[in-house]
Amino acid sequence: MSFDPAQLAQIAPLLVVLAGGVFLLMLEAFSGSRNRSYLMPLTVIICAIAIGLELASWSDAAHGSRVIFDGMLTADRLSIFMDCVFLTAAALSAMLSAGFMREHRFEHGELYPLILFATGGMMMLGAATSLVTIFLGIETMSIAVYVLTGSWRRAPKSSEAAMKYYLNGAFSTAILLYGIALVYGASGATGLAELGQRASVLGTQPIFILGMLLILVGLGFKIAAVPFHMWAPDAYEGAPSPVSAFMATGVKAAAFTTILRLFGTAFARPELATGVVGWANILAVIAVATMTFGNLAALRQDNVKRMLAYSSIAHAGYLLIGVVAMGVVGVEARGPVLYYLVAYTFTTVGAFGVVAWLGNRGDERLQIDDWAGLASRHPAAALAMTIFMLSLGGVPPTAGFFAKFYLFRIALESAAPWMLILVVIAVLNSVVSVAYYLRVVTAMYFREVGREPQPIRARGMSLALVICAVATLAIGILPGWLSDLAALATR
Amino acid sequence: MLLLQPAVQARLVDVSELSTFSGARIAFWIIAAIVLLGALATITRKNPIAAVMSLVATFFGLAATYALLSAHFLAALQVLVYAGAIMVLFIFVVMVLNRDEVEPIAVRGAFTKAVGVAAVGYLVVKLGYQLSTVLAPMPGPPPPEFGTVAQVGNILFTDYLFAFEMVSVLLLIAVIAAVVVARAHKREESPEEPQT
After folding, report:
1. Residue range of the domain that includes A210
2. Which one of B4, B129, B167, B196 makes the best mutation probe of the A interface by having the most chain A beta carbons within 10 Å?
3. Would A46 disulfide with which of A20, A135, A192, A240, CB 3.0-4.6 Å?
């Protein structure tokens, strides 16, 4: 089939984001001015236009998914929903970046285009229904994020983080590609729907299974699941805090969308999901290892940013329960995962945002002692951080509570005894996690001020934090509409 | 990807009907030996230049394999891009770094080595067994126009146009990334950054 230009209209948001990235790049290069404060609002506007285009196509997508470019991409509600999540994460991260980069003196024009390009990669990944586009999306996203990680050139930790992230990322890409090659070699198909059909003929052919598992490992690196998490704490800690926020939310959400699509369509057959080497069984073990390890390691951290990094590993573990549930009860388990990703995105961007906000001129205040007595100096920021911590710990009435509630409920629907065990372990883990989240809260409220906090004063940053805090509360107090939307997005 | 599919089938024919002799089959085994020995030498040579040159042998062997599979255009690309351009880059990097000869595989301790050998052995046995069982004869040689520049171009600019364009976006990002990483540090430390 030949290329139909009319199909370009269906990927308009993706084109807007990519063209916006190129536009900002050229604008910065030719403007000649050293003042770069106009780039952040433009980035946010580009994201907002893309979100508007996505929302405009929401009702069209009701009539079933639209297959674009011979099955390379699909514009369905899942992709629209997740694109909005990526774009929101990108816009919030850009708002945080502006103040942070100006304060720490590394505001370069390329960073905003790179955020947009990375978002473009995520959007491609969110809509990808072919192994070819999955690979391209992952690479587009990852390469941009590697550079963002290392963008704070004067901080040695930033370069170290970028190096570790890059090497691990390259390694995981090789594994992913090998898996794709084996799956293709066994089935002769790259489209996910076609793969799903051929899987019934192939059954449990070893080469096919091996390819599937290698793809799983490759994606496991991207979501930082144990035992593929080694890079994550260093990368998240070393990266500039707004970039850490972007990595922990956008990249992870994009990888999870791919996992949902890939294992929900191509490898959805029961013998592939819950057979002897079924992916659901393997993911169940990985989920337990991921949340347990993440939480236990986070307990021992005195560095708030590193604690958030381990907490983000633990949350990947909770999210994997939803993926496992999808293997057992079917695609309706995607809804709670989407809800969780939204809640987690606002909360995590907010938490990393407060970390970015506290600290000035090359001096990041990351130790928990630096947070002592923050409530008496900056009550609003302390309140926001408290909301984020409670939400990450899953305490009502925040978004994190309902996220976990819906996730565990769908997992229990399968009525399999091992799913029950999984949920019990997850609940125990959530209880443990509250301990280290509350440690930050008690430091802020019940300890004397140690070092006088000198936070960054930037309007964009404050606005982003307010948006995150309000959204975290709003999703938690009125959970119904978002969970309905998420359920619609999975049809 | 689609353009490789008949190639996969052709390979299956080659390997599964080994009992009958033909020039192509003998050539296949010789080339396969070159590919594997080159790959082995790449990871075992201590001298980086020797390792890189062994990789050249592997790349040429792969190109010959593609030619055997009637993918002549792909074979030409393999020689031009991998055996040519990418190898030159490798050698440049080796020359620029100018490292001493070091142990290529830094695995220490008897236990680590034992685990490594066991894991690799297990993988080889398993993969070998699977590969020997999976190959079923598939029908027919590829159509005569298969693997020509015209056909590859046709598929690339119709079915795979989106992927092709996205690769160019990916390359653009890689170029920007390289510029950002390679840029001199100096500018960002200059004091005349705007105060806001």
Report:
1. 7-489
2. B196
3. A20
